[in-house]
Amino acid sequence: MNNLEFQKSITRELDIVKNRVRSLIGNANWGEEGRYKEAVLKTVINRFLPNNLSIGTGFIAGERGINESIISNQIDLIIYDNSIPVLFREGDFIITTEKNVRAIIEVKSKLNITNLRKVITDFNNLNQFPFIADNGDNRVFKGLFAYENGIANIETNNNFERELRNSRGNINHITIGKNYFVRYWRNNLNIHPPVNANNPFYSLYKINDLSFSYFISNLIHISSMQELDDRYQFSFPIAGTKEVSRKKVIEMEDRN
Questions:
Q1: What is the mean pLDDT of residues 99-119?
Q2: From CA 242, how far away is CA 183, in angstroms rounded?
Q3: Torsion sign (Cα): 23, 8, 167, 113
């Protein structure tokens, strides 16, 4: 079994499918193209989810005080534990409280600095939900999936670095086109080659033809809340781990 080619095939599939509707409609309706791409990603993710997890779109609701509720912006994709009741479900649309949420994902056709800033603002606003805000053990996967990279010179782009620092870890996984992948780390323990950082940091990796599949593999490992060590080599097949493909470290500012 060729684990590397298996993972690359997932990225290639998504890369091919993303162009299918554009070939038919051209520039006629970019909104519909975006919804189609969300549906494609949802279909692929759903193949790998255990039976106790479902995927949909909708809102997260919570309580701020007596007779006072809070509600999130609409989230493109929510993965939730279907053994816990939701507040409302109609087809794939849900409204749920926070403790059955395992992952939240925003989907973009092409990432640029402007829409990255908007996504970061939306994710920062989710800090009003304590279960989701507590990223100490990565118990909620918080991802941004972009089919294409629209950020010039991403490995040296100062605006990109600034926006990531502004996110303060509230997005913990980002795929930017099929080659670039970003992950948030709270510390540098057990990372080889080692990272010289005293504070939490983002690592930017260039993993050609693997970014989409690594996003999904991290999503499954985190959202399932299970020990999946026996499938690690199938999920993350880069020899020497992806750390050998690390291009940049973006350390968070010390706020103490």
A1: 94
A2: 11
A3: negative
Q: Calculate mean pLDDT across residues 136-162.
A: 90
Contact 11, 208 (CB under 8 A): no
Give the mean pLDDT of the chain: 86
The amino acid that residue 214 corresponds to is Y
CA distance 175 to 10: 13
The residue that leads in pLDDT, 31 or 53, is 53
Cβ neighbours, 10 Å, residue 30? 12
Q: What is the pLDDT of residue 44?
A: 92
Phi, psi of 171 (to 5 degrees): -110, 125
The answer to whether 124 touches 90, Cβ cutoff 8 Å, is no
